[in-house]
Structures are given as structure tokens and as C-alpha cells.
């Protein structure tokens, strides 16, 4: 007889979800609040600065984040999640203080690199897996993802306002304070993890790298998120300067553009999300968003010379950007092997951060040598490269990944039990990990009755 499942998260699960979402928010705000103002600040603050140095300072956090997020996750398996999160937030705080005190662009670059070394994203996601039961894990991940998106939006608005009140150095002091708040939330808010286990759906298994890196569909998504964040970082090397020079806005008024742009872009992307997820039109919506992203860069190149043209182009860009930012993780899940979601997500996240680093460097290089138009020519080119690659992606099925504990399974029984699971309506892939006593599935949640699936597994043993 199956045990009835609860309909709502427990208080401990809610506490864990919102605490982790809050920690994510402090990092997102800290990393992105400087984007709308840094180029203006750097040109005024540091003498003989080059565009390449501006871009490097903006994007270098992505390089250190990319290389350290997987080692952080592995260390957290050994030493515990909360200690590693606190260490990461302390490193993030240290980097922020160095940026606040920087007397040269070189010192600023070092500070930003150290900020990125507080690479706790993978540890935070593993903590969700440890603290939230499988039934509500997808909901918890969605709450964390929503918080990340809102934090990015808030950072674009808060950066110019804080810069006008306290200066850009004041922003870095505020970021250091956010890191302290993140440490306090970790210590007091995140519940103690008593049964920490390796979460194959949330953590990276280095033994799976080869297979994931040979998966052309996943590589296409990794390339996509690389280009998406390369475009974002490269753009913000020059967008604040363009708003000043072409739209005549002082820095404290830049939020007048970002606030309505971000709010309208979220509203405009909702119908497309519905079309993609609920009506099975993911590929055309996704490819259309990539094309729109690339065309917006051509728009900046040829038409971004007035307030209203910049406003319209930023609105088009962020509608496409937010749609792609929401769709790409969903596509990673749909196209990942059932028992390799964590590794696929780890490679995807690494590609995202590397894209930010490369975008900052190349955006700065093209600004230094070719001006604003050089940057937008570069971002348009890589945007169209992505569009060409996206057109050949396979049509994704509306699948999710789930897993259930199945108890002891003898190795000789694995293949037969997998075949029986695949016979259940709505199951598209089944992988049994006898060493973990778990089964991993690719399922269509619009078809499958999960309670019935669990009962079916029990009867099939």
C-alpha cells in the first residue's frame, strides 16, 4: 500500500527554499548592480584606461566562477554544504571590499576575479536537493529560478540609483554588506543538512563529462548560453555610455529606462512562454527569440542614436533575452539523459560564465579599437551564428526528469526492470542505478500519474 503524499511543502522545506533563494539574490545583485554604471565610473575614475580593461573588469568574474563552481560542489560533498557556502560568501565579500578600495583598474580587475571565486551556485542547488523532498524539488527550483530573474532585474535598476546616492564605490560596499547578509542567512536560515547525499539531478559527476560533451543537442544549448551572456556583457561595456551620449541621460536617470524596459519585457515574454511550454511550440519560439536577439544588435548598430530608439531596442533585446534565459534551462532538462541532468546543468552553467568572461574581454577590445559600432557588430555576428545553429536543433518533447527510490536491485535484473518501466504510459527513458538504489526517468508530466508509476514499480519487482 502506497503512503499518501503531502500536498504542500513542510515548514522546513519552505524555510530552506526561501533561504537559498535569498542567498542567490545577494550574489546576483552583487555581480550585476555594477553593469549599468561601471563603464561610466571607470572612465571617470581611472586615468589612461582602455576599453579592454573595462571589459575585463566586467567579465572576469565569469572566468573564476566557471573554473571553481564544480570544485566547490565536490568540496561540499566532503566538508558539508553550509561551510562551503559561508566560505564562498566570505570570498565574495573580500572581492567586493577590494573593488571598493581599488585605486587602479588592475586592482579592480583582481577584486572582480575574487568576487567570482565565491562560486557557490552549484552548492546552493545541491542544498535544495538535500533539503527538499523529491515531490516538491521542481517547485523549489522554480522559486529559486524566479528569484534569480527578479534579482537581475532589480540589479539593473538599483545600480544607477545607488551610484547617484553613494557612488560606484558605495555600490561595492553595499555588495560586501549583501555578502555578510548571505552568510547570516546561511548560518541561521538554511536548515542543517543531516542526510547529505550526492544529488545526481543537481550535482556534477565528472565521470559523465565525456558523454555530455559528445551530446550535440546539449552542446548546441551550451553554445547558446555562452553567446547569450557574451552578448549581454559586451553590450553593457557600451550601453551606459550610449545612454549618456546618445540619449543625454545622466547616470542617476538610467533607471528610468531600465525599470519600464524590464517590466514590459517580462509581460511581453509571457505569451511566448505559454506558446512554447503549453502548446508544444518550443522550437519555433526559441529560434524566433534567437533571431530577434541578433536583429536587436543590428538595430543598436544602425538606429541607436536617440532616447526612444534606444528604449525600443532595449525592450526588444530584453524580451528576447528573458525568454531565452527562461527557455534554455528547460531545454537542458528536456534533452539531458535521465541520470545525467546534474552534469549537463554543470556544463551549461560553466558555459554561461565563460560566455560572460569572453563577452567582457571582446566587448572591451572592440570598443577600444572600433567604438560603439564595433561592439554591436560583434554581438550581431555571434547572435546570427547562434541563430544558424539553433535552426538545426531537434524538436524537444515536453519532458521532465524524475527519480524514485527502488530499494535493492540485483545487477542481472536491471535491464528487465528498465523495460517494464518504459512500458508505463508517459515514460520515455528509464535508467536504474543499482548502486544508488534509484531509478531515473524522462517523463511527460501531462500524461504520467506518478503515484501510479511508483505503485507499478513496486508491483513489477
In terms of topology, how is this protein built?
Blueprint: H1 11-32, H2 38-45, H3 51-79, H4 81-101, H5 105-117, H6 121-131, H7 134-189, H8 209-213, H9 216-245, H10 255-278, H11 282-303, H12 307-335, H13 341-391, E1 400-405, H14 414-422, E2 427-433, E3 438-443, H15 450-460
Antiparallel strand pairs: 1-3, 2-3
- Kindly report the average pLDDT value: 87
How helical, in percent, are the residues? over 70%
| Shape annotation | globular
Number of separate domains: 3
The CATH architecture of the largest domain would be Up-down Bundle
- How many helices? 15
Q: State the low-pLDDT regions, or none.
A: none
User: In whole angstroms, how far apart are the ends?
Assistant: 14 Å
Order of H and E elements: HHHHHHHHHHHHHEHEEH
Question: For the record, what CATH class of the largest domain applies?
Answer: Mainly Alpha
Q: Using the coordinates shown, work out and report the CATH topology of the largest domain.
A: Growth Hormone, Chain: A
Strand content: under 5%
How many strand units? 3
> Order of strands across the widest beta sheet?
1-3-2
Q: CATH homologous superfamily of the largest domain?
A: MFS general substrate transporter like domains
> Whole-number radius of gyration?
23 Å
Most strands sheet: 3 strands, antiparallel
Structural class given helices, strands, pairing?
Answer: mainly alpha
